[in-house]
């Protein structure tokens, strides 16, 4: 029984993020997150856990989108298009800019040292980014890439939020058919 459970978890974890870079469908789903998101403090901002939608690891579009609004000291999420960020694709582990927001990336940076003036030097991103951009996925483990800081602004760089990936995990919701739910924890600092 333990081996079956371990195998099921391994398959779910492998499917969770290995396919994330291949998903291209951004159709929103109406599935609500099962658990509330959490906000905790970090030394220069806060951590926020984005609770993903339930979906099939064999159908990345089944996860739909989770929309996140970053604030000063807290964040919120919704299944209705709003906020600066969209967590999408496989287990909602990829991130994209929403609406008029713009997403940029810095490498070799520390979130607590980044300032709003870094906006002009950051590389603009388009579409959803995930594996091999802000995390690696090997041996069924998603690992944040050190030094990667994402920047987002919805007013041309006047108000900028920096965020890094803290963790990306998934849990099995149902065995048959197999469904999983991801949780992506980001560290956020309003600059």
Overview of the structural elements:
- This protein has 191 residues and is mainly beta.
- The chain has one domain (38-190).
- It has one helix at residues 2-18, and strands at residues 39-42, 45-55, 66-70, 75-78, 85-88, 94-97, 102-106, 123-125, 135-138, 141-144, 149-153, 161-174, 179-190.
- It has a seven-stranded antiparallel sheet with strand order 1-2-13-12-11-7-8. Strands 4-3-5-6 form a four-stranded antiparallel sheet, with no helix packed on it.
- The longest helix is centred in the N-terminal third of the chain and has 17 residues, at 2-18.
- It is globular, with a radius of gyration of 16 Å.
- Keywords: Signal.
Mean pLDDT: 80
Q: Total number of helical segments?
A: 1
Number of strands: 13
Order of helices and strands: HEEEEEEEEEEEEE
Q: Can you summarize the main beta sheet?
A: 7 strands, antiparallel
Structural class: mainly beta
Rg over C-alpha atoms, rounded to the nearest angstrom: 16 Å
């Amino acid at each position: 029984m333990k081996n079956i459970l371990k195998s099921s978890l391994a398959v779910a974890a492998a499917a969770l993020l290995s396919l994330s870079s291949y998903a291209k469908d951004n159709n929103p789903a109406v599935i609500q997150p099962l658990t509330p998101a959490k906000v905790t403090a970090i030394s220069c901002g806060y951590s926020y856990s984005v609770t993903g939608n339930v979906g099939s690891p064999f159908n990345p579009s089944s996860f739909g989108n989770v929309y996140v609004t970053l604030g000063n000291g807290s964040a919120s999420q919704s299944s209705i298009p709003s906020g600066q960020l969209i967590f999408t694709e496989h287990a909602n582990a990829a991130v994209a800019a929403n609406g008029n927001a713009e997403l940029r990336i810095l490498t070799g940076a520390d979130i607590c040292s980044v300032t709003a003036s870094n906006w002009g030097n950051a590389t603009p991103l388009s579409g959803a980014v995930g594996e091999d951009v802000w995390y690696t996925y090997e041996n069924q483990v998603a690992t944040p890439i050190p030094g990667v800081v994402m920047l987002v602004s919805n007013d041309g760089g006047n108000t900028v939020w920096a965020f890094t990936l803290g963790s990306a995990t998934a849990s099995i919701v149902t065995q048959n058919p197999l469904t999983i739910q991801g949780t992506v924890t980001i560290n956020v600092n309003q600059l």
